């Protein structure tokens, strides 16, 4: 019955940003959060490779020890700051049991981010930058996520969801604004940008070893070559999909229904091609060009 009540509440607007109702409610308690200079924040728009980067960073912090990485589900190992859903420990609760140095996750836009993270100059690993080919996959992936995760409102048809997505009327608001403002932050803060190429997807880049090395360097650690190879293997999409500590199947089915669409769905770029109609694609391209016109990264094909 509790779950019945919690299913598909409308989004709530906070400072103009639409959010999952429960996450909006978590922002008050989040004010008491205090960042530490040795925290590391993984900041992404939803469906942009967050779990993959979280898994890599946890493996690095555990010295490549697989058993230690199986100690708890990914959302317990890497507290999700604004997370709050009835019946599951909130991000703030999870934080209490998280020893430093901590890995933290957020999808919040800067307007809603606790200022303490910026004051402490916490290192930030960002999600993929505004690569257009990637962005269309985010839209498709987000639609499937709305379908299976019932803390979101009903997404409606793909066409109506796409309209809402382009207008920034989905949870966490505008993708365009999110990536642009976090990119701006990289000029003044210690921010690591991902090294995605044009046709790569964040959760399964073609050169994961290069990305893992970059992350190691960013966090000032080193691991033996064999350990890095093991990490490449263990953080592959195929492995993570069948890892119950990474694939979100420990979440009650009432909240995430993997039979509708698994959390770890495809892990590849180009899925949009089978979803977008020609008309949707044209409309989308025009909208993208307009919204990203002022962004220095918008049309780079490779980073
Ligand atoms: C998650 O992992 C478990 C354990 O390997 C597996 O049985 C299940 O099929 C996976 N779930 C999804 C949705 O991929």
TrEMBL record:
Main location: cytoplasm
Keywords for this protein: Cytoplasm, Transferase
Enzyme Commission designation: 2.8.2.-
GO CC terms, sorted: cytosol
Coiled-coil features, chain-numbered ranges: none
Top-rank EC class of the record's enzyme: transferase
Positions of the Sulfotransferase domain: 37-295
Organism superkingdom: Eukaryota
SUPFAM superfamilies: P-loop containing nucleoside triphosphate hydrolases (SSF52540)
Pfam annotation, one family: Sulfotransfer_1
One annotated GO molecular function: sulfotransferase activity
Localization in the cell: Cytoplasm
InterPro entries listed in its UniProt record: P-loop_NTPase (IPR027417), Sulfotransferase_dom (IPR000863)
Entry similarity comment: Belongs to the sulfotransferase 1 family.
PANTHER family referenced in this protein's UniProt entry, alphabetically: SULFOTRANSFERASE SULT (PTHR11783)
Name listed for the protein in its UniProt record: Sulfotransferase
Native species: Cercocebus atys
């Amino acid at each position: 019955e509790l779950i019945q009540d919690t299913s598909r509440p409308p989004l709530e607007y906070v400072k103009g940003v639409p959010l999952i109702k429960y996450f909006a409610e978590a922002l008050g308690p989040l004010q008491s959060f205090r960042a530490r200079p040795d925290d590391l924040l993984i900041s992404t728009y939803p469906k942009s490779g967050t779990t993959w980067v979280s898994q890599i960073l946890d493996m690095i912090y555990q010295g490549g020890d697989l058993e230690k990485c199986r100690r708890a589900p990914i959302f317990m190992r890497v507290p999700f700051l604004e997370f709050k859903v009835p019946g599951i420990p909130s991000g703030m609760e999870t934080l209490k049991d998280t020893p430093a140095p901590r890995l933290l996750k957020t999808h919040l836009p800067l307007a809603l981010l606790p200022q303490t993270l910026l004051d402490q100059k916490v290192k930030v690993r960002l999600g993929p930058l505004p690569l257009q080919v990637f962005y269309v996959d985010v839209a498709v992936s987000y639609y499937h996520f709305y379908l299976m995760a019932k803390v979101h409102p009903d997404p409606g048809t793909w066409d109506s969801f796409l309209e809402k997505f382009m207008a920034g009327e989905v949870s966490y608001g505008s993708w365009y604004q999110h990536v642009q403002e976090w990119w701006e932050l990289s000029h003044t803060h210690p921010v690591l940008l991902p090294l995605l190429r044009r046709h790569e997807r964040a959760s399964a880049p073609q050169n994961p070893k290069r990305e893992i090395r970059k992350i190691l360097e960013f966090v000032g650690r080193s691991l033996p070559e064999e350990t890095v190879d093991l990490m490449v293997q263990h953080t592959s999409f195929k492995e993570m999909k069948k890892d119950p500590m990474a694939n979100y199947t420990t979440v009650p089915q009432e909240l995430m229904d993997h039979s509708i669409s698994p959390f770890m769905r495809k892990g590849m770029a180009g899925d949009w091609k089978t979803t977008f109609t020609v008309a949707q694609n044209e409309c989308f391209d025009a909208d993208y060009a307009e919204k990203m016109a002022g962004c220095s990264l918008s049309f780079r094909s490779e980073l």
